[in-house]
């Protein structure tokens, strides 16, 4: 396997009632800005738990962070922090809220004229504000990594970025907070975690056995527990398994020393940027197309995936691959997720825009840089 450095400084507080322990993690003298999304935390009791945990602190809240966090909204929080000198952030929500909070933490001390360059050009910034998180929707793994994705509404761009300064200091993972999640959000979380694992697993072999088998165990757990969680996110056992799978899927462990793909994500981001399709649903659309177009390059791992994840032992290698792809798509369908561009009214004009944009950026995606714009066109056309 490749050389790697692995360091994950995020402290995890896992289990029922752990929101109360926030007060043990945030310095008492801190002036805290709590960030959140559309207000569901005020309906399901999470906000009240956070409020109780922050008793005795000087704190305020900033809501309205979108499911695909918008640069324009996040900059309003940056302005508020600069005006009122907050020195600690607490993200309470799903991956979008945590992602947005990471950008806020980075942008506050940015000295340039355009903080978007932190994302677009990887511009350097001064020390990020410290922050913690309370996870309410298991999906992205943002609660235990240093990456994020932010959307710029004016330019219709959705781009990833990351920096070692952007690990949460701590994250609370209480499976009971998922109890009132809508089915759509629960399903999105399972698929998001599933494809996170796939992007680090479905690649060429450089001898990383432990990471392969660890990845397969996460995939099998998602397949086993995902449908039950989708039907009833208040089931603690299912919720706990899904929450921990989502975190482990993208905290760096299974990707250490591993060639990684991420082409499905980058193509999916463009679908969200142009049509605001839920992130997980773009992944469910694109992934089977990626496997179809890049099948020869991924053949060895696809066969292993068929055998070890789906227990497909009979037939030729091609037949095993076909069955595994079909079962994967059926798994998405069982979670209520449609997997074709036509299901979301996306036509050839959007395909053309995405290919043109990727050509302009000279993007070569995938673990070997083989997913060129012409391949992206084939991938999307396969999902019409």
Overall CATH class of the largest domain: Mainly Alpha
Mean pLDDT: 95
Domains (count):
2
Q: Judging from the principal axes of the Cα atoms, what is the shape?
A: globular
Adjacency order of strands in the biggest sheet: 1-8-5-4-2-3
State the end-to-end distance.
37 Å
Number of helical segments with 4 or more residues: 14
The named CATH superfamily of the largest domain:
Dehydroquinate synthase-like - alpha domain
Please name the CATH architecture of the largest domain. Answer: Up-down Bundle
Please tally the β strands and state the result.
Answer: 8
CATH topology of the largest domain: Dehydroquinate synthase-like, alpha domain
Give the topology string: H per helix, E per strand: EEHHEHEHHEEEEHHHHHHHHH
Described by strand count, sense and barrel closure, the largest sheet is: 6 strands, parallel
Structural class: alpha/beta
The portion of residues forming beta strands comes to 5-15%
Spatial extent as radius of gyration: 20 Å
Helix proportion of residues, in percent? 40-55%
The poorly predicted ranges are none
Could you describe the 3D structure shown?
This protein has 384 residues and is an alpha/beta fold. The protein has two domains: 11-177, Rossmann fold; 181-381, Dehydroquinate synthase-like - alpha domain (Dehydroquinate synthase-like, alpha domain). The chain has helices spanning 40-43, 46-53, 71-84, 95-107, 117-120, 183-201, 209-231, 236-249, 263-275, 279-293, 299-308, 317-334, 348-361, 373-381, and strands at residues 11-14, 31-35, 58-62, 88-94, 131-137, 147-152, 157-162, 170-173. The protein has a six-stranded parallel β-sheet with strand order 1-8-5-4-2-3, with helices on both faces. Helix 11 crosses helix 12.
């Amino acid at each position: 396997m490749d050389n790697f450095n692995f360091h994950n400084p995020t402290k995890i507080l896992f289990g029922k009632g752990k929101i109360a322990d926030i007060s043990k993690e945030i310095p008492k003298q801190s002036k805290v800005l709590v960030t959140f999304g559309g207000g569901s935390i005020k309906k399901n009791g999470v906000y009240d738990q956070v409020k109780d945990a922050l008793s005795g602190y000087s704190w305020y809240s900033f809501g309205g962070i979108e499911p695909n966090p918008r640069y324009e909204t996040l900059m309003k929080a940056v302005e508020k922090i600069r005006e009122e000198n907050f020195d600690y952030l607490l993200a309470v929500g799903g991956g979008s809220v945590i992602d947005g909070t990471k950008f806020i933490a980075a942008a506050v001390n940015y000295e340039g004229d355009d903080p978007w360059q932190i994302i677009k050009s990887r511009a350097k910034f001064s020390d990020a504000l410290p922050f913690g998180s309370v996870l309410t929707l298991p999906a992205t793994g943002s609660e235990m990594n240093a990456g994020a994705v932010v959307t710029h509404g004016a330019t219709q761009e959705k781009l990833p970025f990351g920096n070692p300064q952007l690990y949460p200091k701590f994250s609370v993972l209480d499976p009971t907070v998922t109890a009132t999640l809508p089915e759509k959000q629960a399903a999105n979380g399972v698929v998001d975690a599933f494809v996170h694992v796939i992007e680090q697993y479905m690649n060429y072999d450089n001898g990383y056995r432990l990471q392969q088998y660890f990845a397969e165990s996460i995939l099998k757990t998602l397949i086993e527990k995902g449908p039950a969680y989708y039907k009833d996110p208040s089931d603690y056992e299912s919720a706990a398994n899904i929450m921990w799978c989502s975190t482990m899927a993208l905290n760096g462990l299974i990707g250490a020393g591993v060639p990684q793909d991420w082409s499905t994500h980058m193509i999916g981001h463009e679908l969200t940027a142009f049509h605001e399709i839920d992130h997980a649903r773009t992944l469910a659309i694109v992934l089977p197309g990626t496997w179809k177009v890049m099948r020869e390059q991924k053949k060895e791992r696809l066969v292993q995936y068929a055998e070890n994840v789906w227990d497909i032992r009979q037939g030729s290698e091609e037949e095993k691959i076909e069955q595994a792809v079909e079962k994967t798509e059926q798994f998405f369908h069982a979670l209520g997720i449609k997997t074709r561009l036509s299901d979301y009214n996306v036509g050839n004009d959007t395909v053309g825009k995405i290919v043109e944009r990727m050509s302009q950026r000279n993007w070569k995606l995938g673990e070997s840089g083989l997913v060129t714009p012409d391949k992206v066109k084939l991938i999307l056309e396969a999902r019409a």
